[in-house]
Queue: 4 jobs
Job 1
Amino acid sequence: VADGVSGPHSGRRVRRRDALPLYSVAGFLVLFGTWFAFAHSGWVPRLVLPSVETVATTFWRLTQDPFAGFTLQQHLLSSAIRFGSGFALAAAIGIPLGLMTGWFRWLDDIVSPVFEALRFIAPIAWVPFAALWFGTGFGGPVLIIFSGAFPPCVINAHRGARLVEPRLIEAAQTLGASHWRIITEVLLPGALPAIVAGLRISAGLGWQSLIGAELIVVSSGIGYLMVQGQSNLATPIVMAGMVAIGMVGFAIDVVLRAVEARIQRRWAG
Amino acid sequence: VAGSASERGGGRRRLTGVVTIGGLLALWVMLAAGGVVDPARFPRPVDVWRAAVQLSDRGYAGGTLLWQVWYSARLVVLGFLVAAATGVPLGLLMGMSRRAEAFINPAFLLIRPIPPLAWIPLAILWFGLGDTAKIFVIWFAAFVPALINTYTGVREIDGLFVAAARVHGASSWQIVSEIVVPGALPLIFTGLRLALQASWTTLVAAELVGAFFGLGRVLIIAAQDIYPGMIAYAMAWVALLGAAMTWALGRVERRLIPWRTA
């Protein structure tokens, strides 16, 4: 659309394109400039809006001195371990389940209604039962991550398995392959691009669910650090926590994006 | 699992579903009657029933069922509308103007990796435990999917339509209202559906962290009282309201996009 809107004179369009990075720089400057100006103007209390520099130095200080029991790295590590466990569990159960419901119709008929009914419960609403059943240390948060990360694993594995070319399945059947071999050697590789795409969605939802769980019930982790900062009215600590969460979430996404690109390249070739 | 109902309809499938759910419920009743489950950890049917009666009659966590549902639903609708009213126009703008896109994108990319739930502590610091903090957090959760999908929808419109309209002397306003918006509408609604689900999850989380009323408040008080019956009942209402809102948006979508059959 933009091409149509910017007019038919292609020469003008090219020149405008060259100016685009300037707009991006302007966007950055306006964002940070507004923050800087407001924080230093004295209109807004420091408590409400700390300056950019304060947040940066707080971030640095949190990596050196413990807050809420641990340093920032230790909080992040305990969050990462919980996340890794819940995510691995969701993938380890969700992907085989999705492939199997994609292959066995009767299993799909049984699993679907339960799955659809449970899916409407927001992952975060499992927090009370998770705490009651598995405690607030490790098991409870892992269940919350699991409930966030599980559905995309199942759905994508299922869809991927359904979209595998019938010719391949028929060929395997003709050669006398067992159910097990069809699932592991035909459906799994065929569905892999869809599965990896699902894993990326899972990771995002799981990471977000973990933050929610840590805000509510846990006594370590990056979410807990933020809650403690909030109850101490330490806005810079809360903001530094948000920066750390954003960085980790971004890193997770970059890694999975790389895996996805690699698999798609191999499968396309 | 997903979309398979339409792949092959039929009574057999529905029957299996009813039998499965019925079987699980029967199993629950039997396990509870047999004393296998610990009522302090897992609710029995009678516990859920008692919780239902208590919440409707005397109320729990500061209000009756009607009040708590109204409180949560009102906030989610408000937050969703604010997010839709900002995200969709901004998405249209970014889709139509490369300059606007270049200007807004950096800030957007910077904020996007922060999950909406991570804004909750900051929202409480800034606005306290009241309505404003909730709407602020919901806005962050719902704004992103509304914007991205609107933007993608606009970008996928064939530029030829716009060029043709321009040649025939259509005004900018006509191009926006008669080509860009209708063309992007299916994806706009996809975005709104995702935004609505995100709004609901986020609100429940925000109410769990700190609120005066609402279903999330009921959940967290029930957790503190170790009251499994009430936890289960409140969770059922969280699911029910989420489903009802998705259904209502689907009705609006079918009304506005009659040409889309799916």
Job 2
Amino acid sequence: MRRLDLALATVSVAVALAGAAALAQASLTPAEAEARRFVEETIDSVLGVLHDTGLSLEEKKQRVESIAYERFDFPLICRLVLARNWNQMSEQQRNDFVEAFKKHLSATYRDTLDDFKDEKITVQGSRPEAKGDVTVMTLVRSSTGDTKVDYRLRKVDAAWQGIDVIIEGVSLVQNFRSQAQEIISAEGADALIQKLRDKQIDLDTRKSG
Amino acid sequence: VVVAFGCAGSAPPEDPWQAVNKPVFRFNEGVDRFVLRPVSQGWEFVTFQGLRESVDHFFFNLAFPSRFVSSVGQADATKASTEVGRFLVNSTVGLAGLFDVATPLGFARYDEDVGQMFGAWGIPPGPYWVLPLLGPSNPRDAVGFVGDMLLSPLFWLPVPIYGAGVLNVVNQRALYDDQIENARRTALDYYVFVRDAFMQNREAAVQDRAARSRSPLSGAPASDDLYDLPDEETPPDATP
């Protein structure tokens, strides 16, 4: 009798929990559910590479880079960064900028991987945005504290793609847009592309030196 | 460097005080490069990471009154009570705040301050303002910072211990050295990078608060036109 009570209680608790979980799931739009899954998969594959003891640091960096190239829409990010300036640029300048910016971001990102230690990453929530975009909020916990990292995602040709990273409220797109605007209005688009390339050389020599 | 001196002509709308801000920024950069960073590297050399983290936790715990008052001032019972819980746990079990045992126990860590409280009251930040030695700010947050100081227990000690404040700054500089140097190396225009990051971060800290007090699900994005693509146009050299 006691056992049956216990079993019944367990079952009812389990049912209640499942119901609550289903309810929480139900409040997510299908787009949010997809976007969250996309972010979770990306985090898992990056952490999988970083925790793989069979890989050298250089191999890890290369694999993380290819994951990033696959999962972020770099040409779109470039257009958002350049905003109205994009329309004033020639085809050549646009292509040069996309190429240089992509290299710049990946070099910056590779640099930060050196500092990666025991960080734990969890998905905290999501919210639907205008134009069918979804923002997925994550929290990176390390021994020095928590960092809020949000990803803005957009469905491009039936596949989700990252179009912005927002760290502690600071959007990467907005931040680069301010810098690009300043340089373009003072010195022009070619100077901006040249600056990206110069920085690239600095970072490369530092890496090998 | 010569170019940087020559472009003080027209200030952008987001930085009307640029003519004053830029020289102060350069001064602060010099202080960091020749004084603060070398000192923090010395500190890093004679300490270990766990100690530096504990020093940071200690000062963070000590700044409890400012976070508590700011939470109460925004009528946020959850944050205020969480702060009290954190302070009690970390001051006792956490050995005077040296260890953050509250976070793993489920007490969330909030970074409220008086400037954010002013923001939640609807006070606008005012223009971007680089303060000597203190760095990026604005009139609202500068006044808020004075409030934070007045609420610090260190300020009310019978004998002022300036060394404690200095230690906190040096220690934090050491803890965030990687991030700061990384930003310096990779930014295309470091002055604009810092200005934009500061303004976005403060705005988000205040917005986060305002969004949550409306309803837990209505966190509207701050500026959505950021993600609008301008109308597709062919490059100017390709148009007939």
Job 3
Amino acid sequence: LIHVIGFEGLWPDDAIVAWGAAAVQTTDRLKNSLSGLDMPWLHSSSVQSENISFVEMPTIDLDDDYVDSPLVVLAVRKREETFRFFLPDTGRLQCLGSRYNKDGRFYVFENRVAFDTYAADASLGVVAHILRENSISTQQASTLLRQCLILSPANPFVHAVRVYFSGDSRVRTALLARACLRTNAEKKTFDEMLEALGDETSNGSRCWLKYEDGIARGGGLDAVDAAKQFTALAALDKRLRPLLLDRLPFFDAESEIPSIRIYEMRPGSANIGFEVSLPDRPLIERVARYFELQLLQEILRGAVPPELSDDPKFQDDLDKLVNPGDETRVLQIGFGRDDAEPVVFQPFSSEEAKPEKRFVVFGIIQGVVGEVKRAELKLFPGIRELVSITDTGFDGVPVGSHVFQNRNDFLFRPASFDVHRFIDANSRYRLFLQRIDVLEREDHAKVTAFPSSVVRGAFVLPHQPIDVAWHSGGVVVSGVLLTDYPSANHSSSDRLVEALSVWAKDKELELASTGQTTWIRAPRSPRPTALMRLLVSLDALNGRNTLSNLINEANRRFGTVLRRNNSLREINRSREYMAIGDDDDVVQLTNQGKLLVSIFKAAGGSIGDDPLVV
Amino acid sequence: VIGLYWFHACRRETPAQFLAVLRDGIEPPPPSVGVGTRQLELALGILPPRVYCFLGRTLDVFGHYAFAFRCGTAAAHGEVSPFDTGGLMNHLLPVSGWPNDRRQEYLRAFSWPHSTLETLLAAYPGASKEEVQRYLDLTLRPEHPGPHVPFAGRPEAEIWNQDADWRAWTWEGRWASRLPIRDELVAWTCPPALFPAVIDLANQAHQADELSWYQELMTKHISGGLGGLIAMLSPQQVPT
């Protein structure tokens, strides 16, 4: 065994927390766990007489496997209730041991990454608490934030909140806080968070969307037009939440993020005012609303986040918001700006797009929109494609599109869609319908592609076509009965696409494992899911490494602030792709996980910042 | 260009006193302070008292405050030796068993002006990536039994022998007058629990040049105390 008998540094009375390198005693040496420097050491009683600069603590014995580990000790003093913010969840963190005495609680972390993960979690928890508490005093906030400075001296959220509470010395505090941050990403986050928090003199809490002429001619909006615009806004609001959750790590769930708040409408032409600061509401709401509106403003300036740029539903809602009708000009006045600027959004233009690949997919006709000019095809539960039923992209009309004109029973009918994918100058894609075959009972169809379950925007192209049939017993794909389909209605179609997506997920893995497919790559790499970020990072670490190193690699590679508990949750629900030891330490890719990564790469998934290999 | 940094660890009553060191430089202690060190200095003929720094790492295993600085012109008035002089009195056999006059002669033979450091380092540990890595690896002793091999013609003593540890082959720098490190500062650290107090001091800066200095200082802070400082800077000192 080795013995952790203290930690380097000091623990002043006014500090709830302290931390430092472990003082590790072996048989006859005493070692600084971080620097590796050591010295002869025979008697622990000589701590005081040797005038050694470490804080004594109850001895924590560890297996001697850890003798060369860069251990870190955390000390938490039991004081009032606030100390609970800083107690680590030893079950999920790489905490090797803990002991208590009258001074407090002591924990040993396996390495600096494990400690930093704890420190970021604890600090973000404090930030969230301060932002949620309307009545927190400056003194209370300051005490908590000082502990965060001890744990995470370069955390941009901590520094921004600290500046917010700095009163008259705001400018000076902000300058110094910014100097504490290391990376450009940290500085950007700090600047944005500071803007989001605002201050008493801030004039940047309101922004505007302005409609001129067209639907706003004469001032105001007709109720029908207003309802359309607000519906589009609500749809966009919903789509932005996952992005916000990713960018604001002190939120735990999308449900915590408040909606965009419409605060004022002026009839001058038609001005919709949005507000982030509401009286008597917690600061956290202001922060969330600010970031969401800021994101919307950037989108309206043409900077659509990559994860939404290939989302046809999002693009469609955005198109509705900013192109409400002929002759309508749409402008915005951003936070802290006086002048209106025209919104910039280029809807997909088939004239500028180029045909890429033609294939046949299977799905359901979900509806027709735009005065029977476009059909909504549902391929998977989350994948809907809007296709023109009047234009093939080659100056023609899709074969079979007469069903939309001459019949009224196409809704929720299984069908095969012969489509050509076009890519525009911004690497966005649209499917152009070439031919539609709405299935009658006992009909068969051959399909040549289906959406990838691994990379959104990619399609699986099996080497052999897939047979689809609608029998009296139900819909059969490749000889597999997916579900019954007694009649074409909403619930039957939902059941079918759900079953189809489950079948397709397994089929994609099966085809990949036998080399029986290629992929049409996603034209833009969508932002990978948390699972794929972990899998790609683990693959880059040769398929096996500690959880701490995995989180570190994922954060480096994808510029995220992954938290340990979220990562562990993701791993635990993805055990078919990643195996983790009972001690929550070493994570390893399973064969299925390796397969998934290979599909992800082949289908055009983003692997983040991959170091160049020479 | 010397890639290795000088390190210095120290204790101070308050963070303000430590920041004063970073700003104004470090002075040798008055003779009345640090009696143990003064006795060693007297025995080895080191007069007046010196400021001590060590190349690549500190000699202190644990510390409160610490900083690292480049081997630039600010350090030019010092002298250097390829071992810890305190060890000559305490534990570096066989020298520690010699009479004082012989020990002093040994120290004089292995003391050089700081201005010659680059040439000295080329002889020991060497300038290649592998040689510097070896110097920074605490577990690997030099390939020679003592400094008389790389620095031939000087008294022979196998102080880098099997019983010695890394202190025996760590370069020591000694300065008899104030050592200004402000312009050469690479990084500094303090006990993590005192960092908020350092921020408080910085927030009290009102003059523009003072605020500017604090801003620059914050960019050089490394968290995690002395252990964190050495762990962070060790890889940076290895030539690429």
Job 4
Amino acid sequence: MLVQLRREAGATLYSGDFDLFADVVLTNMARAAFERRELLLDRERKLNVPVPQPIAVRTRGETFSRPEAVLDLLDVLERQRGTGVAVFHRNPYLHAAVTDYADGSSFDVFINDADELVVVPGYRATVGSLARLTDFIGERFSAVEISEAERVRPPTTKDLLGDG
Amino acid sequence: LSTPDEEQIRLLADDFRTYDTNVDVVSAWEMIFTESDTDLRRRVRHFERFPSILAPDGREATPDFSVVFDSGPGLVGEICRFALNEESVEAVCDQIARYDTLRQLPVGGGATVAVPAVDVMLLVPFELGTAAVRRIIRQRLLDPSHRYKPENAPVIVQFELSRSSEKYVFQRRTDSGNGTFREEDVPAGARLSADWFDVDDIKVRPDRIRLIKSTRAFVNDPIPPLYLATFLWAKPFAARAATDARPVTIQVVPAELAEQVRNEYGAVRSRDIESAMALLERGGLAERTIDGWVVYWNELHRSGTERDLADILARRSVRPPRTPPRQPGAEAPDTSGAQERLF
């Protein structure tokens, strides 16, 4: 069986058993697409409603530990067609507002850890725009996982007088 | 750009950074007083991020935050920076002397509650900590001839975002004369002075405040025009501009936009909106109309040395492009107020 799998654009069966291809490849791809859509659905903020949990893009190793990596991120985001970037805080942590000029969605993007970027959707944040942003960052920085961000455990007195 | 232009851009950027630091500092204390798993948090009845309090002198007081505990004195926090001149420090002392007289603090929903006293926590950047003790405590509070005589000495706490540890660090100055929080009746473990500041510096990792900062983007001070203009351009204006037409014409009535942003993100006043619109106007991106402003929202991309949207707006406001804000052939803004308002 000759199959080509692509990270972004699906798969092609060139020769072999189509039923096996459908069972093994297409079914899993459909499930992954469904799960991704479920993950990104209803992340918009709504007035007087608790903020939905942000989305985390996790990378391997110390991707964002180098200042150049953060600069590279801002650069490639800005160069992406139809995207605007406003940096509110640059160093030693990143907080930027990313605007999708095509549909008006906006997101707060934070980098607090060397291997994680967190996206907090705003009052307008379509599924398509959130998918484009997370897919783009994930592709560019070889993400190993895109998922709901872990809740930060409330710090104890010991934490706040210790490591923060 | 000429040197004076660069200087203007630098000043705009400085105000932007200083305000963002203040947002972080207030967010850190909001996290400590409302979300931390501590005995201190458990004795908090209400934390107010945008207090507006009627002082005994009949005027409004707007500290950076206030806290009502389940018993004992309340607390107000004020982030303070002062200049070399004496007038600047006198103004700080006058301001915090008024806070010391407050006997009611907000408890949410527009209500207030009486408190027996108020402790003032004066938050100063590390580089001003020593000067704050010398100029506020020694040269004024402890000088019998000076008028600054609050009921309780202010508690001067210096702060910085440590580049090495990547945390906000808060440190109470231990100099004699610096204030302590009045917590004689507070159980051990829940005392900010004895159980926190006297034990170690308080550290807050920035990831602990990211949701607070995303949801409450402002603090209780006038918002620098560049900061608010950048925010409006990237968020509420963009949300109203999901159309192919460029530029998008957005009618802005400052009071209405202020109310929308206030509901969504916290204290924004009409005069803040006016200042931000004036900055956009200088950049050729807005024009005044009979009942507000019209904004010509467009995709702004970097060119040359521009770093991001804030930098683009700063540079445009100082050195506007020659092209007019409207599309060629577009109608002039309606100054009759008859156009549909987006805000």
